[in-house]
Specification:
Layout lengths: L5 E7 L2 E8 L5 H12 L7 E4 L2 E2 L6 H5 L4 E8 L3 H8 L14 H9 L1 H13 L13 E6 L14 H4 L4 H9 L2 E6 L4 H10 L10 E5 L4 E6 L5 E6 L5
Parallel strand pairs: 1-5, 6-7, 7-8
Antiparallel strand pairs: 1-2, 3-4, 3-5, 9-10
């Protein structure tokens, strides 16, 4: 029997990339090689998904996609090397106020008029982009990226190797009880790149409500350390 060709449409960064004349016997790895030519994303950086399921490199496309002819749409995840360089670099060191040791000092800081004014201005000026609407009855779990989800000081070279062990299993279990927010004291572009490379955004077993960056924080000065510049995360009251 003659096998008809497939037309694979891969969506990546909001654009669609078409690979025509794909044989059902062609492997996922071979498809990635075709997509590398179109997108310049290296094969080793690509992750292909269909309906939330990751396509394995050695699988035949006809079997992996469940079709042997016609058009089929998939999602591609991965970053260009020039963008990835920013992800693999440690984030800029941020001075963070130590709010674990002296409750009285923290209370004094939170009640200062200048800090309350900063919080009010930041709430008005900072826009939260909601990725998935909060669910009724779920509490909010806010997770810092560095050292919680992503260990950038290991000798690993690939983003997936920097992920904490059982990262996705943890987030899947947490999502059953909480709406999840990702936060980092860095810029939003860096946050988005890291979450894309780790496969957190668009995962089929859990969803991220929204993400926050350093712009959701205010600077404070503690008298205890003579002008030490700290940052406090601003939480919108509603």
């Amino acid at each position: 029997a003659v096998l008809m060709a497939l037309r694979v449409v891969a969506k990546w960064t909001g654009k669609e990339y078409v690979v025509d004349n794909v044989e059902p016997t062609m492997t996922v790895l071979e498809l990635k090689q075709e997509l590398e030519v179109l997108t310049e994303v290296l094969v080793m950086r690509q992750k292909l998904l269909m309906k939330g399921k990751v396509l394995q490199d050695g699988a035949a496309l006809g079997e992996a996609l469940g079709v042997e002819q016609g058009e089929v749409k998939i999602m591609m995840m991965g970053s260009l090397e020039k963008d990835l360089a920013a992800v693999l670099q440690p984030p800029p060191e941020e001075d963070v106020i130590n709010d674990l040791g002296d409750d009285q000092e923290v209370e004094d800081l939170s009640n200062r008029s200048e800090n309350l004014n900063k919080v009010a201005r930041r709430i008005q000026g900072y826009k939260v982009t909601v990725l998935n609407e909060p669910r009724a009855g779920k509490k909010l779990l806010v997770l810092d990226i560095d050292y919680t989800l992503f260990d950038h000081r290991t000798p690993a070279e690939k983003p997936e190797e920097l992920a904490r062990p059982y990262l996705h299993e943890f987030l899947t279990r947490a999502y059953q009880h909480y709406d999840i927010v990702i936060w980092s004291a860095t810029n939003m572009k860096w946050v988005e790149l890291k979450m894309q490379e780790l496969g957190v955004l668009g995962h089929g077993d859990y969803k991220i409500a929204f993400m926050l960056c350093s712009r959701a924080m205010i600077s404070v000065v503690t008298p205890k350390e003579l002008g030490y510049g700290g940052r406090v995360w601003v939480v919108e009251p509603h």
